[in-house]
Design brief:
The structure holds 2 protein chains of 2 kinds. By secondary structure, chain A is an all-alpha fold. Chain A has 12 helices and no strands. Chain A has helices spanning 2-23, 42-49, 53-84, 90-104, 110-119, 126-151, 155-162, 167-175, 180-196, 199-204, 213-224, 229-254. The two termini of chain A are 29 Å apart. The chains are: A mainly alpha, B mainly alpha. At the A-B interface, helix 1, helix 3, helix 4, helix 5 and helix 6 of A face helix 2, helix 4, helix 5, helix 6 and helix 7 of B.
Chain lengths: 264, 308
């Protein structure tokens, strides 16, 4: 019984900040209060009528999906190679990469990254942001994928090789189908991180028309604040929905099997 | 008479030494390697190089870029803002990464692993919802929750406490715990699912308490996962710029974690050389923590010892 109470309290903790996000977008007046007399969709109409709001969503979608595909594909290939082929300094390299990524996704390396993209003529382009995001997120993806493949049994691939299949065919038809669960986690993690990332596009993009929703919402909240807080809530809710949808799809299709593989 | 190889023989010596040929491994690693080299290694080394210079965009020194050796690193050690940021970051990591995200994540995973009914699924969904909500939205939500005048928390308690200014550390820790717990919870969840129910049944029959069952059955199984979770969660928390969106480091620098201070040095004061040195300190601290986790926990990590 006490266990259920603890779990319920944790649930309350997670639910509390979210309540306002579900209520305020439907409120007529800009308020922090939690009751709505007459629910309205007016705020959503106002968001969709705001020039640039839809464009910002499109920008977010483009950059996040591209980063997700790039990181997932590269992490699957490299993570598999790191798990199934041992070479000297492998684990050290992986640790150094994860450590490096913590610096590069942080604030200090944004300046060299800025200069680098300028030299490559990638500043203020979608591609520049996508590559910068991918470089930062790939090490974590690799780490998770390698861990995932390590836990998969080797026997199926060994049997395939003993039967005379080439390593490529073994990967393509035996190993790759088993990577689904790990790839799903990496894809979700990358999309969520890219979709929510604020600093990278904020610094690497100059044109306001290319801003993703994260930067647009922050500007909105800082500039207009309380008088339009219900409109901001509506915008925030719309901005959160795609991530939610993606999560539900991935969970439905793959579930979350991070350890154990087929062994289950 | 030659004997049939038994299952034990096969698992002791793998049939194939290396599953992937060296050439194929190279091609698999190449595309990821190129992206990492250009967009990760180069900027990281660049900022490492920058940390040994007086690189700045303001003042008379801006036109005279010169090598300054370890000057920036020594400067940090004498900088009270650096020590303040370090302490805030450590409080944040200890409170929200170790106790919060890992501790709460593991506790919830264990408690819910054999719980029936609607409760565990609801709590799981709520935690995941908090986790996938984008950072900017989370910051707005917590501003509303903790707002001193009519915030949700004050409405519920009937008080008028400016939580962010009165309890900045607690706010920071709860904010980060709220955002990150789902990740470790999900990882521990899936590790726990690999434990056969029969282990617990056998333990129950022999009269072991739930506490005993946790240490004898659950703990050894989640321990390998714990290294991964601790490593990633600590690093993410340590380098997270998210608190900036909630408090911008205030009040009076009380929530100014190292990334926010680094941002202030690099983008407000334009002291890029010093900012780079700060980020290298950040990296070194990360590295020390990673090694400590390895030492503490890897000793018990023995995957081949897993029952299958």
């Amino acid at each position: 019984m006490i266990q259920r109470v603890i779990v319920a309290l944790a649930g309350l903790f997670f639910a509390l900040p979210l309540v306002w996000l579900l209520i305020a977008p439907f409120s007529k007046t800009a308020t922090y209060h939690l009751h709505v007399p007459n629910p309205t969709l007016h705020n959503f109409a106002q968001v969709l009528g705001t020039e640039g709001a839809l464009k910002a969503f499109g920008n977010s979608l483009l950059m996040s999906s591209a980063s997700m595909v790039l990181v997932t594909v590269l992490a699957c290939l490299a993570g598999y190679a790191l798990s199934r082929r041992s070479f000297r300094g492998r684990d050290l390299t992986l640790y150094l990469l994860v450590l490096f990524s913590s610096v590069v996704t942080g604030v200090a390396a944004i300046v060299p990254l800025f200069t680098l993209l300028l030299d490559l003529h990638l500043l203020d382009t979608y591609l520049g942001v996508i590559l910068a995001l991918s470089g930062g997120l790939l090490p974590s993806g690799l780490f998770i994928l390698k861990d995932f493949v390590d836990a998969l049994p080797r026997s199926y691939e060994e049997a395939s090789l003993v039967d005379g299949a080439t390593p490529w065919l073994t990967f393509r038809y035996v190993a790759a189908p088993m990577l689904g669960g790990g790839a799903a986690v990496v894809a979700l993690l990358t999309f969520v991180n890219a979709w929510g990332n604020f600093l990278t596009p904020y610094i690497l993009l100059r044109s306001q028309g290319m801003y993703p929703a994260s930067v647009a919402i922050y500007g909105f909240f800082n500039e207009v604040g309380l008088p339009f807080v219900n409109v901001i809530a509506a915008y925030s809710l719309l901005y959160t929905l795609p991530v939610l949808a993606l999560y539900l799809i991935i969970q439905k299709v793959f579930g979350f099997k991070l350890a154990g593989g087929i062994k289950g | 008479m030659p004997e049939e190889p038994t299952a034990e023989d096969r698992s002791a010596a793998p049939v194939v030494a290396e599953i992937l040929s060296a050439r194929l491994a190279f091609w698999f690693l190449l595309p990821g390697g190129i992206v990492l080299a250009i967009f990760l290694v180069v900027p990281a080394l660049w900022s490492l190089g920058q940390s040994f210079t007086n690189f700045t965009l303001l003042g008379p020194e801006a036109r005279h870029l010169s090598f300054s050796g370890l000057h920036n690193y020594r400067l940090a050690l004498e900088d009270p803002y650096f020590w303040n940021a370090l302490i805030v970051s450590l409080v944040d990591v200890l409170g929200s990464a170790l106790v919060g995200q890992c501790g709460l994540g593991l506790t919830l995973a264990v408690l819910m692993s054999r719980m029936e009914g609607w409760l565990p699924n609801t709590v799981r969904s709520l935690a995941v919802l908090a986790w996938i909500t984008p950072g900017v939205v989370v910051a707005i939500l917590w501003n509303v929750l903790l707002n001193g005048d009519e915030g949700t928390l004050n409405q519920l308690l009937g008080t008028h406490i400016a939580w962010l200014t009165r309890h900045p550390w607690l706010s920071l820790v709860l904010f980060n715990t709220w955002r990150g717990t789902a990740f470790s919870m999900l990882l521990f969840d899936s590790a726990l699912r690999t434990i056969p129910e029969s282990y617990y049944e056998a333990a129950s029959v022999s009269g072991a308490s739930r506490w005993r069952q946790f240490w004898d059955i659950t703990w050894p199984m989640v321990r390998p996962q714990l290294v991964t979770v601790l490593l990633l969660v600590t690093m993410w928390t340590f380098n997270d710029f998210g608190p900036y969106l909630l408090t911008a480091g205030g009040p009076a620098f009380q929530t100014e974690v190292l990334p926010i201070y680094t941002y202030r040095v690099a983008f407000r004061d334009f002291e890029l050389g010093y900012g780079a040195a700060l980020s290298v300190w950040l990296l070194l601290i990360n590295f020390a923590m990673a090694l400590a986790y390895q030492r503490l926990l890897k000793s018990g990590d023995n995957r081949s010892g897993r029952p299958s």
